[in-house]
Write a structure and sequence with these properties.
The complex is a heterotrimer of chains A (about 200), B (about 210) and C (about 475). Chain A is mostly helical. Chain A is built from seven helices and no strands. Helix content of chain A is about 75%, strand content about 0%. Chain B is mainly α. Chain B folds into two domains: about 35 residues; about 150 residues, Cytochrome c-like domain (Cytochrome Bc1 Complex, Chain D, domain 2, Orthogonal Bundle). In chain B, about 50% of the residues lie in helices and about 0% in strands. Chain B has ten helices and no strands. Classes of the chains: A mainly alpha (about 200), B mainly alpha (about 210), C mainly alpha (about 475).
């Protein structure tokens, strides 16, 4: 395995998360390298899969599939990409901000790397977006999400050099942030759709 | 006296704490709920609204017994899609004889505020006994016992109507005296069907504002 | 004179029992939405009756019994005196549990007042009122005899729970009985709706939020061995909470046939409510964080801390769903159900579980039977609640968007039946989520029962009078 944290670490993250955490804990990758060498690329996967899937199969919410014009699909995928990157950056920055309270490592690079590792299964799991059936996506992504939460609880104390209890507290605090961020996104999305900014599903 | 020293007093005196909670928690109710309860215009019956007949009342009480309002709302919101789907939006005056109100909070099945007259009695009978016989994808429970039970098994219809009269429903002595006979020979299935057919009838033919 | 803890044990046992039974009823009704024929044509298993039983058992059986148990435990310790009128406390126990048993049976038999979360008929309403006032007498009697000068914060919340729920219950249950098992509401139609949601929303507010905050304010600092982070913040948050919550009810009636000003006021107050709700969360998080360095590894704390995360979610989601432009989509959909359960499972149940894992070893005088089982319970609960909430978000947003979709000609685009049929997979996921959560609760029941069967006699006496000052 390369000692450097890069796109190649992905395999290790997926199959030997504990070893990946320990490797990470031993080094301090620069935040820019984690971001440009890893996060940006795996963050590109879900919107890409979503774009391909929606263009080919249409949205399937359980009723007849909904096909959207290419420009709309592109705009939605781009917005999705931006939302993912913002989610990633904000949770990494918030993790670093919380690190003071929980006496954890304040290395921004480690926080970036931790979030990238935790998010990696979800990015890979998003391959299911290729067939954008809402239920099948939930079926795959919800267990993946629970796995990611498990990785967060297990990995945080190791990567950020803090005790198991403080790690548990900090992981719960991060989950609180992510839950609130997720529901806000949901609220903003439907409110925008309601005000006519969103795609017109009824076409 | 700053607020901390005021609070020092409250938190050292249980009577004061109880009084404080009572006062502070009552304000919202007094300003927001009480005016609605005291304003009779919110319970004034709409023109054309008839009080429930004995059979409809029996059906309504069965509807409550089976908690139908867990899954069926009776409230059409003033939104284009809802008015297109269900009919004219609901007005307060339509619910003057609803004790309790049955607007519901969850629409697992369709809204029923205007279901009256949309289907035949026979359709309702089949649907209540075996919903999937007429709507294959339906997840509604079947209610086979409705057909096997006589309406008003407890012989309480007169007592119920008298109670409602005390609350202001316009039942006459003759209405109440005739009620038990009106339910004679009817099943609970007939009663629920009669109630469903009565829903939203008062607004039919009323022009949309 | 020792603390009266046997009553605490009894209420805890009842609470755990109702938790398992109430959640079982919940899982069963969730299954009925996937396989509608599993009621086998039996009235008592019919969805409407069983769902009413589910909410009654978890709210009044599990929730209230847990609150009374923890309330009676903490009021003695924060007042440094033995319980006032323990005989009356035992009366509360028997009266309350008998009401749940008979009331539950009456719901299955078809007695129903027709008001959501207040379906029990008038004889039970009377019994509830008597038991509740007796609980109030015991609780405030204990506070009146306290040796501490100040009344501790947790007791303000329990106090508000007792007073406000009494007020809500009595007003909302006002009805004229027609027979022994049937009564008619004193209010009709739109007026009844406004009264009902003043009750319904604040039952959530003062029971599921306020009451459980009382639990938090005692057990969290206790567990962290650290005084509450900011006393001043607790004072402000408490009174703002008590004042604001009451106004928010009408957000359950957006776009309904009630006056516009009532809806708008309800929406505004719901948004304001975020401030006191989150102030309390910040206070809780900062309290554990301040103690983070000295914390011992303990399953109880894990549950309590995660419950705070879901408290943060639920108290944010609530005001958001109260905004009319969001509510127009979420209203009447599964999103509401998901929201309720992120609060009920993620916040109320998790904090209660955590508290029980803390409480039962102390009542038994023996260590927890298995920390490993408790850890498995933690992950089952987290997975269960996530599955539940996410499947309901998916279902709710789909319903909201599809119902309101219009086609080019301005007609509704999707038939109701098609949208309903599309919900089936989500219902299946929700059923699995509920099943996981129930499995966790069963593990807890076993764990706590085994812990208790290894008990030693423990009596805890109040500290001597000179130690009584300045603990708050």
């Amino acid at each position: 395995m390369p000692a450097r944290f890069s796109i190649f670490s992905l395999v290790k993250v997926l199959f030997r998360p504990k070893a990946a955490f320990e490797t990470l804990a031993a080094q301090e990758p620069p935040a820019t390298r984690v971001f440009f060498g890893f996060a940006l690329w795996i963050g590109l996967l879900p919107p890409l899969f979503a774009y391909i899937g929606t263009m080919n199969f249409g949205w399937r919410l359980g009723v007849e599939p909904v096909f959207l014009p290419q420009r709309t699909v592109f705009a939605i995928s781009a917005a999705y990409f931006v939302a993912l990157l913002l989610g990633f950056l904000s949770s990494a920055v918030i993790a670093r901000w919380m690190a003071v309270t929980y006496d954890a490592s304040q290395s921004l690079g480690r926080c970036f790397a931790l979030m990238a590792v935790v998010g990696a299964p979800l990015a890979i799991g998003s391959v299911i977006h290729l067939y954008p059936h809402a239920f099948i996506n939930l079926l795959v992504l919800v267990p993946t999400l629970i796995w990611s939460m498990y990785l967060l609880y297990r990995g945080l104390p190791v990567v950020l050099h803090t005790g198991p209890n403080r790690g548990m507290l900090m992981a719960s605090a991060l989950i609180a942030y992510l839950l609130v961020a997720a529901v806000s996104l949901l609220g903003v999305t439907v409110a925008l759709w309601g005000s006519g900014l969103g795609p017109l599903i009824g076409n | 006296m700053n607020f901390l020293s005021l609070h020092r007093k409250i938190e050292r005196h249980s009577g004061l704490l109880i009084f404080g909670i009572l006062v502070v928690s009552s304000i919202g109710g007094l300003v927001q709920v009480l005016p609605i309860v005291l304003d009779d215009s919110h319970s004034a019956p709409a023109a054309g609204l008839a009080v429930y007949s004995p059979l409809e009342l029996e059906g309504r009480d069965i509807y409550i017994r089976e908690s139908c309002s867990t899954c069926h709302t009776q409230q059409v919101r003033p939104l284009l899609a809802e008015v297109k789907r269900y009919g004219p939006y609901s007005r307060a005056g339509e619910f003057a004889y609803d004790r309790p109100f049955l607007w519901g909070s969850k629409r697992t099945g369709p809204d029923l505020a205007r279901v009256g007259g949309n289907y035949s009695d026979a359709w309702h009978h089949v649907h209540l006994l075996d919903p999937r016989a007429v709507v294959p994808a339906s997840i509604m429970p079947a209610y086979p016992w409705l057909a096997q039970r006589d309406a008003d098994q407890g012989r309480t219809i007169a007592a119920r109507m008298r109670t409602l009269r005390m609350l202001g429903h316009p039942y006459s002595d003759a209405d109440i005296a005739a009620a038990p006979a009106a339910l004679e020979g009817e099943t609970e299935l007939d009663a629920v069907t009669a109630y469903l057919q009565s829903l939203g009838r008062s607004m039919q033919g009323t022009p949309q504002p | 004179m020792n603390y009266e803890d046997r009553i605490v044990t009894a209420f805890t046992a009842c609470s755990v029992f109702w938790a398992v039974l109430g959640m079982l009823a919940g899982v069963y009704v969730a299954a009925e939405l996937v396989w509608p024929t599993i009621d086998f044509g039996l009235p008592g298993l019919s969805f409407g009756r069983l769902r009413t039983l589910h909410t009654t058992l978890v709210l009044f059986g599990f929730g209230v019994s847990g609150l009374v148990a923890t309330g009676l435990y903490s009021v003695q310790r924060t007042s440094h005196v033995r319980l006032f009128a323990p005989g009356l406390a035992w009366f509360v126990l028997y009266a309350w549990q008998l009401t749940i048993v008979l009331g539950g049976a009456s719901i299955l038999a078809g007695w129903n007042a027709g008001k959501e979360y207040a379906e029990l008929e008038w004889p039970f309403d009377l019994a509830i009122a008597v038991a509740w006032v007796s609980f109030g007498v015991v609780f405030f009697g204990t506070i009146a005899r306290r040796k501490m000068e100040a009344i501790y914060i947790s007791n303000w919340f329990y106090g508000a729970l007792i007073i406000v729920v009494a007020m809500l219950h009595i007003v909302n249950s006002l009805a004229l009985p027609a027979t022994f098992g049937k009564s008619y509401s004193l209010f009709a139609g739109a007026q009844d709706a406004v009264v009902q949601w003043w009750y319904g929303h604040n039952a959530v507010g003062f029971l599921l939020t306020g009451g459980f905050l009382g639990m938090l304010y005692y057990f969290l600092p206790k567990q962290a061995e650290q005084p509450i982070w900011s006393y001043r913040l607790s004072i402000v948050a408490f009174w703002a909470f008590v004042y604001t919550y009451i106004w928010a009810g009408p957000h359950h009636l957006h776009y309904h046939s009630i006056p516009e000003w009532v809806q708008s006021l309800g929406m505004a107050m719901s948004l304001i409510l975020l401030a006191p709700s989150w102030a309390t969360m910040v206070n809780g998080i900062m309290t554990v964080s301040a103690a983070a360095k000295k914390l011992r590894s303990d399953p109880a704390l894990k549950f309590i801390v995660l419950s705070l995360a879901f408290y943060g979610l639920a108290t944010f989601e609530g005001p958001m769903l109260a905004i009319k432009s969001v509510n127009v989509f979420s209203h009447f959909t599964e999103w509401t159900i998901g929201h309720v359960h992120s609060g009920a499972l993620g916040w109320n149940a998790l904090i209660t579980f955590g508290t029980f894992y803390f409480l039962v070893p102390r009542l038994a005088g023996a260590p927890l039977y298995s920390a490993r089982l408790a850890n498995i319970h933690f992950w089952l609960a987290l997975a269960g609640v996530m599955l539940y909430v996410l499947s309901m978000w998916g279902a709710g947003v789909s319903q909201g968007v599809l119902w309101l979709s219009l086609d080019k000609l301005g007609e509704v685009r999707f038939s109701f039946n098609d949208v309903m049929a599309a919900m089936k997979p989500y219902y299946l996921l929700r059923f699995i989520g509920g099943l996981l959560f129930l499995a966790g609760a069963v593990l807890m029941a076993v764990n706590l029962a085994r812990t208790f069967s290894g008990r030693r006699t423990v009596v805890v006496a109040p500290p001597p009078a000179h130690a009584a000052k300045g603990l708050t």
